[in-house]
Design a protein that fits this description.
36% of the residues lie in helices and 22% in strands. It is α/β, with parallel strands linked by helices. The radius of gyration is 19 Å and the shape is globular. The protein starts with 5 loop residues before the first helix and ends with a strand.
């Protein structure tokens, strides 16, 4: 899709979408985002260190003539440069769950959350299980992970993902995430709220299903749900604990606006950590300081927002500490 024109991309996305993002980011940044929507994304694998190690996987890939690139801030991730996912499906390292396809952006929340052995961790919106498994692996398979999911169909995918990767410490529960906080107050050391969203960061201009559903109404309803989920996660968090809030979307209604509301709601009981990714700066979008007549709390600038590109999906991450 690399040769598609900007005008054609704009036509496919529609006037309401384009006018919205030109207001948010300005013309030059918006055109970079549009290019990101038309890129063919390179696959990325996460190495399951419960079953193997990075060195052995790299040696195996070299034997199979797979070209790859390491990611400086993701020690267990490799960007695959000359093969697609289908190539890996018949390989034992894939069948045995020694490697797992998970995009760079998707791996960021757990990297910032930093779960360690012995932690009690809540994944509030856990399916399909990529981040749940990643956190359990970072914990060395020692501790407790509660994987909560609302959707019955997605729960089956979650269970499959965890089983294939050999995750023993995760308990899968079905339930509405907005009630977990009141059921399990101040129980968890770490909480991940990878919230349902309008998924703008995952738009693939060659796939109309990835953007035809978009509307301002979805932005507002997603933001409202995200605020309730983050509130629930914060209630479930121990004092001194860490909560990561993430989305695969770009609009400030959902991201900066939700962070701003959390900071206002919890006041002196919450602080927001400054995030950075050395070596990834050129892939980051500016954090929006104000939108639609609302000026956000200055601390919202501590978050990060990744731009869709050939190596990653669009993504947003904020990390809070409960005082």
């Amino acid at each position: 899709m690399a040769n598609i024109s900007i005008s054609e991309i704009r036509h496919r996305l529609g006037d309401e979408f384009c006018e919205h993002f030109e207001r948010v980011f300005g013309m030059s940044i918006f055109e970079k985002i549009l290019r990101g929507f038309s890129c063919e994304r390179k696959p990325c694998i996460r190495i399951n260190t419960l079953k193997t190690n990075v060195r052995d996987v790299m040696d195996f890939l070299r034997e199979k003539n797979v070209n790859f690139e390491r990611v400086s801030f993701l020690p267990d991730a490799l960007i695959i440069k000359n093969k697609d996912e289908k190539f890996f499906e018949d390989l034992d390292i894939y069948k045995k769950g020694e490697i797992y396809f998970q995009g760079i952006s998707s791996q960021l929340p757990a990297i910032f959350l930093k779960p360690v052995s012995g932690d009690k961790v809540l994944d509030l919106c856990a399916a399909p299980g990529s981040k749940t498994a990643q956190m359990a692996i970072m914990m060395g398979g020692i501790g407790e992970v509660l994987a909560n999911e609302f959707d019955k169909i997605r729960i089956e995918k979650l269970k499959y993902t965890l089983e294939k990767q050999g995750i023993k410490i995760a308990k899968v529960v079905e339930g509405n995430g907005i009630f977990v906080g009141e059921k399990m107050p101040e129980y968890f050391d770490k909480v991940l709220v990878d919230a349902p969203c309008s998924a703008e960061g995952r738009i693939d201009i060659s796939n109309p299903r990835s953007y035809k559903f978009w509307s301002k109404k979805i932005l507002k309803s997603s933001a409202s749900l995200q605020k309730r989920l983050v509130t629930s996660g914060f209630e479930a968090l121990k004092k001194g604990g860490i909560l990561a809030y993430s989305t695969c979307t770009l609009s400030p209604e959902e991201n900066e606006g939700v962070v701003d509301s959390v900071l206002k709601k919890f006041g002196e009981n919450v602080e927001i950590l400054k995030l950075s990714l050395t070596g990834f700066e050129k892939n980051l979008l500016p954090i929006v300081a104000s939108y639609d007549g609302v000026t956000f709390d200055k601390r919202v600038s501590n978050c990060i927002k990744a731009m869709p590109s050939e190596i990653c999906e669009g993504f947003f991450v904020a990390v809070f500490r409960k005082k």
